[in-house]
Write a structure and sequence with these properties.
alpha/beta; Alkaline Phosphatase, subunit A
């Protein structure tokens, strides 16, 4: 029996957000930025055209991607704060509402259904390897994927848009990830500068734009809001204090480039707080794990399952008996027809990585495989408004 009806009811009730290309979204933002930066052959949606019009022409563009800064966090700021008072519109994040899917969509202008990098953990079928994608390591041993002969192009299979920009490009990321495989992929050959604090990054961007003699595009990635929200939950005072810090520093950046550059601020996703009673577990010796060809991949909010041949019905029965109260279980084909990962059919690489089934929480539940002793409080990747709605802030 299909769970599609239960999911559709949650969409209708507004409990979950149904991904749609017909409302302004993060893919629209990517394509709008590329168009403003001189890429002239993209077929823009109405949402992308609206963003192009709102941003307008400038010699210099700055995109600040604040990891985890969902629209709800912005709305909790004072009305006269920089971020809230300059919020232009709310965008839908891509699904799964997680960093790797969102940043790959931002870099490529493609939906996860096409770019094939949907989740933090991916089972790479051709190599029989469970990978942690962003740090480019094997999930359990933590060894680099290169030990299995896996190259960047084997995981990140589609080209990015920034190399086509008709302006000088520069990426600003935390020092710890300046030379990572994923930074190299998404920056697309742009110069990358590492920073220690957001204030330092703002200073460097101000200096760069002030000295520029040709059009520029600057990309700033800032992860601390997300890190704190994972550790303490998005409602914690420390998270609010960091959002206030972001507000202050980006206001300073906007003031410093006013009249010379256009600042765009957005996020990859928001987060939800998960209570202890909403944590569910599958372990290696579990009767569900016995039916899988690899450990569950995906995310705790959206686990993905590669099921052994001939075991599909038994998997459905066991999963729904244990977790059906909290999760809907969809086949990959059902998710594809619902266009949860984006419009159109799955690319071959997406079909491989999504596997046979995915589970979606109807509330704020998580399903973790062999979880650590110290659980995080904040999670994302699901379809709640808190996770799926992100701001677009223009100054």
């Amino acid at each position: 029996m299909s769970d599609v009806g239960r999911l559709l009811e949650s969409f209708e009730a507004g409990l979950l957000v149904r991904p749609s290309p017909d409302v302004p979204n993060s893919v629209d933002l990517s394509q709008a930025i590329a168009t403003l930066a001189g890429v002239g052959d993209l077929e823009l949606t109405k949402g992308a055209e609206r963003i192009v019009s709102q941003v307008g022409q400038s010699d210099h563009y700055v995109l600040a991607l604040v990891d985890g800064l969902g629209a709800e966090l912005v709305e909790q700021l004072a009305e006269d704060s920089f971020l809230r008072s300059h919020m232009c519109m709310t965008l839908q994040a891509v699904f799964p509402s997680t960093t790797v899917a969102a940043l790959t969509s931002l870099a490529t202008g493609l939906w996860p259904s096409v770019h094939g990098v949907p989740t933090w953990w991916s089972y790479l079928v051709d190599y029989d390897v469970s990978a942690t994608v962003l740090p480019f390591i094997e999930r359990f041993s933590k060894r680099p994927l290169g030990k299995w002969g896996i190259k960047s192009s084997d995981v990140f299979t589609v080209p990015t848009l920034p190399p086509r920009f008709r302006c000088e490009r520069h990426s600003f990321v935390p020092k710890a990830i300046t030379s990572s495989v994923y930074t190299s992929y998404t920056s697309g050959g742009a110069e990358v500068t590492g920073y220690t604090t957001l204030s330092e990054a703002v200073d460097v961007i101000l200096t760069r734009i002030g000295a520029a003699r040709a059009p520029t595009y600057s990309y700033l990635y800032y992860p601390l809001v997300d890190a704190l929200a994972h550790e303490r939950g998005p409602e914690d005072d420390a998270v609010h204090a960091e959002v206030v810090n972001v507000d202050r520093e980006l206001s300073r950046l906007a003031d410093g480039i006013k009249g010379r550059a256009r600042l765009m601020t957005t996020a990859d996703h928001g987060l939800v707080a998960v209570r202890e009673r909403d944590r569910h577990v599958v372990r290696a010796d579990d009767d569900i794990a016995d039916l899988l060809i690899a450990p569950p991949s995906g995310e705790p909010r959206v686990p993905l399952f590669h099921v052994k041949e001939g075991k599909a019905q038994e998997f459905e029965r066991r999963f729904r008996d244990r977790f059906g109260e909290w999760f809907v279980l969809l086949t990959a084909s059902e998710a594809e027809r619902l266009e949860l990962f984006g419009p159109g059919p799955f690319a071959d690489v997406t079909r491989q990585r999504v596997g046979d089934y995915l589970a979606l929480p109807l509330g704020e539940d998580v399903l973790a495989y062999e979880p650590p002793e110290d659980w995080m409080v904040g999670f994302h990747a699901g379809l709640t408004p808190a996770e799926m709605l992100v701001p677009l802030i223009l100054a």
